[in-house]
């Protein structure tokens, strides 16, 4: 019917709905809920209610909402929900350089996104392509907002090779509370832009490395959404200017 409001999948009238919960978090929520029920049966109400509340918090943390991914071969999308805390020119990490199929040794723009415990922690591919190098590095758990967390914390580096041969790099970094990085993909997998590629448990940071000749399309302090917010357009070097308000 002409003029009918459709959802982003063309399935009738658009409406809001609760996001699903990723399976990685369901087991923790069920454990807390089970302990809450046992505590209630034993009349330990001072323990039962906090455990019940904790189970709800876990479900909220592992929520996995659907995203509307913008189309465009030149778009580089945000890999994470959160706040842009750093935009800087840096040499790529050793694990992302690569002799072939890497970012090389020349400085590139790094956009750092900090995820608080209230943000969605499912990470998504910044572009379509093939998963190249994946390098896990064990490390510390210092505050993910600090610049040194890129070199000292537990982290996982991922290269996405576009069909045109351009490499886009991202790094999942565990934070002060985070204790595990969970990948959903492996080298050789073909991914779509905005596809889920992993998660980080309980507070973290994700760094995105733009290809050379590409300027950031976001500002410091800006909130971004994984799979939806455009961080850069390949080959576009127009710098944004603005004030945080």
Question: How would you summarize what this structure contains?
Answer:
Helix content is 18%, strand content 30%.
Task: Describe the structure in your own words.
This protein has 245 residues and is an alpha+beta fold. The protein folds into two domains: 20-64; 75-233, Glucose Permease (Domain IIA) (Distorted Sandwich). It has four helices and 15 strands. The protein has helices at residues 23-41, 45-61, 94-97, 149-152, and strands at residues 20-21, 63-64, 75-77, 82-90, 108-115, 122-124, 129-137, 155-161, 167-174, 181-183, 190-191, 196-200, 204-209, 223-224, 230-233. The chain has an eight-stranded antiparallel sheet with strand order 11-7-8-9-13-5-4-14. Helix 1 runs antiparallel to helix 2 (45-61). The chain is elongated. The N and C termini lie far apart (42 Å).
Amount of beta strand: 25-35%
Range of helix content? 10-25%
Radius of gyration: 20 Å
Strands across the major sheet, in which order?
A: 11-7-8-9-13-5-4-14
CATH class value of the largest domain = Mainly Beta
- How does the major sheet shape up? 8 strands, antiparallel
């Amino acid at each position: 019917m002409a003029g009918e409001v459709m959802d982003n999948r063309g399935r009738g009238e658009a409406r809001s709905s609760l996001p699903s919960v990723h399976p990685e978090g369901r087991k923790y929520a069920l454990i807390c809920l089970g302990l809450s029920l046992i505590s209630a049966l034993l009349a330990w109400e001072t323990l039962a209610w906090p455990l019940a509340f904790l189970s709800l918090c876990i479900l909220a943390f592992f929520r996995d909402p659907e995203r509307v991914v913008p189309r465009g071969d030149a778009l580089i999308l945000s890999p994470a929900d959160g706040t842009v805390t750093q935009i800087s020119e840096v040499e790529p990490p050793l694990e992302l350089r690569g002799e072939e199929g890497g970012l090389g040794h020349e400085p590139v723009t790094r956009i750092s996104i900090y995820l608080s415990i209230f943000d969605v922690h499912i990470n998504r591919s910044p572009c379509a392509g093939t998963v190249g190098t994946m390098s896990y590095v064990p490390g510390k758990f210092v505050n993910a907002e600090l610049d040194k967390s890129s070199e000292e914390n537990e982290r996982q580096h991922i290269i996405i090779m576009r069909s045109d041969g351009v490499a886009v790099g991202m790094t999942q970094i565990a934070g002060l509370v985070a204790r595990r990085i969970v990948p959903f993909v492996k080298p050789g997998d073909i991914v779509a832009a905005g596809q889920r590629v992993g998660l980080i448990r309980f507070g973290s940071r994700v760094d995105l490395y733009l290809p050379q000749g590409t300027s950031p399309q976001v500002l410091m302090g800006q909130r971004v959404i994984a799979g939806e917010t455009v961080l850069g357009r390949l080959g576009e070097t127009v710098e944004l200017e603005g004030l945080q308000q």
